[in-house]
Amino acid sequence: MSYCREEGKDRIIFVTKEDHEAPSNAELIAEDPDDPYEEHGLILPSGDINWNCPCLGGMASGPCGEQFKSAFSCFHYSKEELKGSDCLDQFRGMQECMQRYPELYPQEDEKEGASTDGPPETEPAAPTSAPTQDSAPVPASAPDSPSSSKDTPPTDRPANS
Protein backbone atom coordinates (compact mmCIF):
# COMPACT_ATOMS: atom_id res chain seq x y z
CA MET A 1 0.00 0.00 0.00
CA SER A 2 1.43 3.41 -1.02
CA TYR A 3 1.46 6.31 1.36
CA CYS A 4 3.03 9.69 1.95
CA ARG A 5 4.28 11.46 5.08
CA GLU A 6 5.81 14.83 5.85
CA GLU A 7 9.02 15.23 7.86
CA GLY A 8 9.79 18.89 8.30
CA LYS A 9 10.28 20.40 4.86
CA ASP A 10 10.53 16.98 3.21
CA ARG A 11 7.75 14.87 1.79
CA ILE A 12 8.42 11.11 1.76
CA ILE A 13 6.42 8.95 -0.62
CA PHE A 14 6.41 5.17 -0.28
CA VAL A 15 5.25 3.19 -3.29
CA THR A 16 4.69 -0.49 -3.89
CA LYS A 17 6.19 -2.69 -6.59
CA GLU A 18 2.84 -2.63 -8.33
CA ASP A 19 2.92 1.19 -8.41
CA HIS A 20 6.23 1.05 -10.25
CA GLU A 21 5.01 -1.54 -12.77
CA ALA A 22 2.18 0.67 -14.03
CA PRO A 23 3.15 3.12 -16.80
CA SER A 24 3.53 6.72 -15.68
CA ASN A 25 0.77 9.17 -16.48
CA ALA A 26 2.88 12.23 -15.66
CA GLU A 27 2.75 14.99 -18.25
CA LEU A 28 5.88 16.97 -18.97
CA ILE A 29 5.32 20.67 -19.39
CA ALA A 30 7.58 22.46 -21.84
CA GLU A 31 9.70 25.14 -20.18
CA ASP A 32 8.85 28.71 -20.99
CA PRO A 33 12.10 30.35 -22.19
CA ASP A 34 10.74 33.78 -21.24
CA ASP A 35 9.99 32.80 -17.62
CA PRO A 36 12.06 35.35 -15.64
CA TYR A 37 11.98 33.15 -12.54
CA GLU A 38 13.44 30.12 -14.27
CA GLU A 39 17.23 29.82 -14.00
CA HIS A 40 18.78 30.51 -17.40
CA GLY A 41 22.26 31.45 -16.27
CA LEU A 42 23.57 34.95 -15.85
CA ILE A 43 21.89 36.48 -18.89
CA LEU A 44 18.18 35.95 -19.55
CA PRO A 45 16.93 35.30 -23.11
CA SER A 46 15.81 38.94 -23.22
CA GLY A 47 19.42 40.07 -22.65
CA ASP A 48 18.70 41.29 -19.13
CA ILE A 49 20.77 40.23 -16.14
CA ASN A 50 19.42 37.35 -14.04
CA TRP A 51 20.05 38.67 -10.52
CA ASN A 52 18.86 35.33 -9.10
CA CYS A 53 21.64 33.37 -10.84
CA PRO A 54 23.59 31.30 -8.29
CA CYS A 55 26.73 32.16 -10.29
CA LEU A 56 26.67 35.62 -8.68
CA GLY A 57 27.31 34.02 -5.30
CA GLY A 58 24.89 36.32 -3.48
CA MET A 59 26.69 39.50 -4.57
CA ALA A 60 23.41 41.03 -5.76
CA SER A 61 22.05 40.89 -2.21
CA GLY A 62 23.65 41.89 1.04
CA PRO A 63 24.89 45.27 2.22
CA CYS A 64 26.56 46.17 -1.11
CA GLY A 65 24.02 44.52 -3.41
CA GLU A 66 22.73 47.77 -4.92
CA GLN A 67 26.27 49.02 -5.62
CA PHE A 68 27.14 45.65 -7.21
CA LYS A 69 24.01 45.75 -9.38
CA SER A 70 24.77 49.29 -10.48
CA ALA A 71 28.39 48.48 -11.42
CA PHE A 72 27.58 45.16 -13.08
CA SER A 73 24.65 46.64 -15.04
CA CYS A 74 26.80 49.49 -16.24
CA PHE A 75 29.47 47.04 -17.41
CA HIS A 76 26.94 44.70 -19.05
CA TYR A 77 25.25 47.45 -21.03
CA SER A 78 28.43 49.44 -21.75
CA LYS A 79 28.91 50.43 -25.40
CA GLU A 80 32.38 51.92 -24.92
CA GLU A 81 35.32 50.70 -27.03
CA LEU A 82 36.99 49.57 -23.81
CA LYS A 83 33.94 47.85 -22.30
CA GLY A 84 33.13 49.21 -18.85
CA SER A 85 35.48 52.18 -19.03
CA ASP A 86 32.44 54.40 -18.47
CA CYS A 87 31.62 52.59 -15.21
CA LEU A 88 34.52 53.66 -13.00
CA ASP A 89 32.32 55.66 -10.61
CA GLN A 90 29.98 52.69 -10.07
CA PHE A 91 32.86 50.28 -9.45
CA ARG A 92 34.50 52.78 -7.08
CA GLY A 93 31.23 53.01 -5.14
CA MET A 94 31.02 49.23 -4.94
CA GLN A 95 34.64 48.99 -3.77
CA GLU A 96 34.11 51.65 -1.10
CA CYS A 97 31.05 49.79 0.16
CA MET A 98 32.91 46.48 0.29
CA GLN A 99 35.75 48.08 2.25
CA ARG A 100 33.21 49.01 4.93
CA TYR A 101 32.42 45.28 5.39
CA PRO A 102 35.82 43.49 5.42
CA GLU A 103 34.37 40.46 7.20
CA LEU A 104 31.96 39.87 4.28
CA TYR A 105 34.24 41.00 1.45
CA PRO A 106 37.89 40.22 2.30
CA GLN A 107 40.47 42.01 0.16
CA GLU A 108 42.66 39.86 -2.12
CA ASP A 109 45.90 41.15 -0.58
CA GLU A 110 44.63 40.14 2.87
CA LYS A 111 44.14 36.58 1.63
CA GLU A 112 47.63 36.40 0.12
CA GLY A 113 49.49 37.95 3.05
CA ALA A 114 50.77 41.42 3.79
CA SER A 115 54.21 41.04 2.19
CA THR A 116 54.46 42.54 -1.31
CA ASP A 117 58.15 41.99 -2.03
CA GLY A 118 58.28 38.27 -1.26
CA PRO A 119 56.14 35.19 -1.71
CA PRO A 120 52.77 35.06 0.08
CA GLU A 121 52.93 33.95 3.69
CA THR A 122 50.77 30.93 2.90
CA GLU A 123 53.23 29.54 0.31
CA PRO A 124 54.79 26.26 1.44
CA ALA A 125 58.48 26.13 2.17
CA ALA A 126 60.92 24.80 -0.42
CA PRO A 127 61.11 20.98 -0.62
CA THR A 128 63.58 19.46 1.80
CA SER A 129 64.44 16.44 -0.34
CA ALA A 130 67.97 16.10 -1.64
CA PRO A 131 68.64 17.22 -5.21
CA THR A 132 68.61 14.54 -7.86
CA GLN A 133 71.05 14.08 -10.70
CA ASP A 134 68.86 16.16 -13.05
CA SER A 135 68.13 18.98 -10.62
CA ALA A 136 69.96 21.51 -8.54
CA PRO A 137 68.76 23.00 -5.27
CA VAL A 138 66.95 26.28 -5.83
CA PRO A 139 66.21 28.68 -2.96
CA ALA A 140 62.48 29.29 -2.40
CA SER A 141 62.91 33.02 -3.02
CA ALA A 142 64.73 32.64 -6.35
CA PRO A 143 62.77 34.40 -9.10
CA ASP A 144 63.20 31.53 -11.57
CA SER A 145 62.33 28.77 -9.12
CA PRO A 146 59.81 26.20 -10.39
CA SER A 147 57.44 27.06 -7.54
CA SER A 148 57.17 30.68 -8.70
CA SER A 149 57.09 30.14 -12.47
CA LYS A 150 56.02 26.92 -14.11
CA ASP A 151 56.37 28.27 -17.65
CA THR A 152 59.90 29.68 -17.38
CA PRO A 153 62.70 27.11 -17.38
CA PRO A 154 65.60 27.66 -14.98
CA THR A 155 68.50 29.53 -16.61
CA ASP A 156 71.34 28.22 -14.43
CA ARG A 157 71.21 24.60 -15.70
CA PRO A 158 73.60 23.34 -18.37
CA ALA A 159 72.02 22.92 -21.81
CA ASN A 160 73.07 19.26 -22.23
CA SER A 161 73.01 17.45 -18.94
Largest sheet: 2 strands, antiparallel
| Classification by helices and strands | alpha+beta
The 3D shape can be described as elongated
Strand order of the largest sheet: 1-2
Beta-strand segment tally: 2
Average residue pLDDT = 73
Which bin fits the share of residues in helices? 10-25%
Rg result: 28 Å
Percent of residues in beta strands? 5-15%
Can you characterise this structure?
With 161 residues, the protein is of the alpha+beta class. The protein has 4 helices and 2 strands, in the order ββαααα. It has helices spanning 17-21, 65-77, 88-99, 108-112; strands at 3-7, 10-14. It has a two-stranded antiparallel sheet with strand order 1-2. Helix 2 (65-77) packs antiparallel against helix 3 (88-99). The radius of gyration is 28 Å and the shape is elongated.
Key structural traits:
161 residues; single chain; two-stranded antiparallel sheet; 2 strands; alpha+beta
Write the layout of secondary structure elements.
Layout: E1 3-7, E2 10-14, H1 17-21, H2 65-77, H3 88-99, H4 108-112
Antiparallel strand pairs: 1-2
Helix pairs in contact: 2-3
Q: Can you describe this structure in just a few lines?
A:
The chain is of the alpha+beta class. 22% of the residues lie in helices and 6% in strands.
